[in-house]
Design the sequence.
C-alpha cells in the first residue's frame, strides 16, 4: 500500500512535469518543470528498490544539470517574452515551437513508440513478477563497479575530465576581443 | 505493482522528450528534451532489472547514463554559450556553418 502511494505520487510528478516541459511557453518555467520530473523519476527509482541510483539522480540532476541549464538560459539572454500574434490570432512565443512543429513531434513520437512497443513486447511478457525483500544496494553496486565494470568506471573518469576541459575550452571568451587587446 | 505502470511512465517521458526535441526551436529547449529521453531510458533499465533479473547490471547502466547525461549537458551548454557569443542567437536554424 505504501509502495502504491509512493509510486502514484512519483509517477504523477514525473508525467505532469514532462507534459509541462513539453507545453510550457517559457524556457525557465520548462527548466523548473524538468526539475519536478526528475524528482519524480528519483521517487520511481526508490519504489524499484534502487536507492543508490535515486540518490545519484537527485545529486547529479537536481543539484547539477538543472542548475547548469538555468545558468545557460540566463547567459543566453533569458526568455525573450515579446509575444508574436500569428495570423490565427493566437499568441506565440518565438523559439518555443508552433502548431506545425508540435504536430511533427507528436507524429514522430507515436511512430517511435509503436516500433519500440513491438520490439519490447517479447521482454515485457517474459518479465517475471517478483517481490524481493528490501536490502541496501550500495555495497553490491560498489563491489560490482570496482570488479566487473572497472574498465567502464575508469573510462568514465577520463570522459568526465575530457568533458570538463572541453567545456572550459569551448566556452572561453571570444577570440576577436582578445586580439583587439 | 506490475511492470506495466513503470513502462507507461517511461513511455510518456520518452514521448514528451521526442516532442520537445522536434518542436522546440531553442537549442537549450532541445537539450531539455534530451534529458527527458535519457531519463526514460534509465528508468527502463532499472525497471527491467527489478522485474526480469535480479543482478544489478541495470542499476550500473543507469548510473552510467546519468554520468553521460551530465557530461553531455556540460559540453552541450558550453557549445550553446559559444554559439551565442558568435551568432547572438540560440535559434537552431541559425546554426548553418561550422566555422565562425
Sequence:
Amino acid at each position: 500500500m505504501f509502495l502504491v502511494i509512493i509510486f502514484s505520487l512519483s509517477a504523477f510528478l514525473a508525467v505532469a512535469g514532462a507534459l509541462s516541459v513539453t507545453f510550457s511557453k517559457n524556457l525557465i518555467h520548462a527548466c523548473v518543470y524538468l526539475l519536478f520530473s526528475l524528482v519524480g523519476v528519483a521517487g520511481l527509482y526508490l519504489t524499484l528498490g534502487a536507492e543508490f541510483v535515486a540518490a545519484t539522480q537527485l545529486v547529479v540532476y537536481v543539484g547539477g544539470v538543472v542548475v547548469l541549464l538555468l545558468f545557460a538560459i540566463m547567459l543566453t539572454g533569458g526568455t525573450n517574452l515579446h509575444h508574436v500574434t500569428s495570423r490565427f490570432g493566437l499568441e506565440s512565443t518565438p523559439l518555443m515551437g508552433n502548431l506545425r512543429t508540435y504536430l511533427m513531434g507528436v507524429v514522430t513520437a507515436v511512430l517511435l513508440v509503436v516500433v519500440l512497443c513491438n520490439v519490447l513486447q517479447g521482454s515485457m511478457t517474459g518479465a517475471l513478477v517478483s517481490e524481493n525483500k528490501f536490502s541496501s544496494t550500495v555495497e553490491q553496486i560498489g563491489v560490482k563497479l570496482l570488479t566487473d565494470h572497472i574498465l567502464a568506471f575508469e573510462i568514465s573518469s577520463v570522459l568526465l575530465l575530457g568533458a570538463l576541459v572541453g567545456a572550459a575550452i569551448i566556452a572561453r571568451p571570444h577570440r576577436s576581443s582578445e586580439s583587439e587587446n | 505493482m506490475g511492470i506495466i505502470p513503470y513502462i507507461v511512465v517511461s513511455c510518456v517521458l520518452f514521448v514528451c522528450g521526442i516532442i520537445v526535441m522536434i518542436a522546440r526551436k531553442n537549442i537549450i529547449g532541445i537539450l531539455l528534451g534530451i534529458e527527458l529521453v535519457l531519463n526514460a531510458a534509465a528508468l527502463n533499465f532499472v525497471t527491467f532489472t527489478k522485474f526480469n533479473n535480479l543482478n544489478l547490471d541495470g542499476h550500473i547502466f543507469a548510473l552510467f547514463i546519468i554520468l553521460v547525461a551530465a557530461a553531455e549537458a556540460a559540453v552541450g551548454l558550453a557549445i550553446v554559450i559559444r554559439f551565442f557569443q558568435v551568432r547572438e542567437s540560440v535559434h537552431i536554424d541559425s546554426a548553418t556553418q561550422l566555422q565562425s
Q: What stands out?
A: The CA atoms of residues 158 and 169 of chain A lie 16 Å apart. Helices of chain A lie at 2-23, 27-47, 51-75, 99-125, 138-147, 150-170, 175-180. Chain A has two domains: 1-77+93-120, 136-172. Strands of chain A lie at 84-85, 91-92.
